[in-house]
Amino acid sequence: MITMSVKQxxxxxxxxxxxxxxxxxxxxxxxxxVYATSIELSSSSVMxxxxxxxxxxxxxxxxxxxxKTVVWSTSGAKSKYSNITPETIEVQGMEExxxxxxxxxxxxxxxxxRSSITIDVKPKISSLTLxxxxxxxxxxxxxxxxxxxxxxxxxxxxVVWKSSNESVATVDQSGAVKAIMPGTAIIKxxxxxxxxxxxxxxxxx
Length: 205
Fold this sequence. Notes:
Elements: H1 6-24, E1 38-43, E2 47-49, E3 53-61, E4 71-76, E5 79-82, E6 88-93, E7 97-107, E8 110-122, E9 127-130, E10 134-135, E11 142-144, E12 147-150, E13 159-163, E14 169-171, E15 176-179, E16 187-191, E17 197-202
Parallel strand pairs: 2-8, 10-17
Antiparallel strand pairs: 1-3, 3-6, 4-7, 5-6, 7-8, 9-12, 11-15, 13-16, 14-15, 16-17
C-alpha cells in the first residue's frame, strides 16, 4: 500500500495542472494557423549555357504564414545544386536540355504548396571559324568575312572584329575588311565572354 501525506496530495493535482497548462499552450488551434498561399520564384536567368550557374529566389506569401520553410528539388536535365538556404538555391546546368527547379512548402494536413521554374540549358560553344583563312586585297578594296559559331543553338553569338594594324587594313563590326595601304594585318574575330579567337591574315595588301 502506498500512502502519501496531505501535503503531497495537494501538490500532485497542482503539478498535474501546471503540466496540462504547459502542454496545452504548445498546441496551435487550426483556426488560427496562417498557411502559405503562394510561392513566388525568380531567377537570375531563364537561359544558361552548359556548365553555368543560375540563382533562384523564393518568396513565400503571405509574410505572416506560420510555415515558410522551402524544400527545393530539381528535375529534367542533369544538374548540380549548392548554396541552399530557405530562400535561395544555386543550380548548375550539367547538360543541354530543360532543367526544372521546384520549391515546396508544407501546410499542415493540407496539400503542400508547390511552385516551379524552367531553365533552358544551351550547349557549350565548341568552335569559331571564318569562311576564309587568307585575304589578298588591293588598296581601297573591301571584302566581307563570315564568322561561324558551332553548335548553332548556343546562347552567346556576340562576335567583335579587330585589326592588328588599322593603318594597313580596317574591319567593321559586320566583318567587312578594307585595305588602306600596302602591308600586312591580322584580322581577328573574337567571341565575347569566350576564349575563342579566329584570326585571318590579309597579306600583300
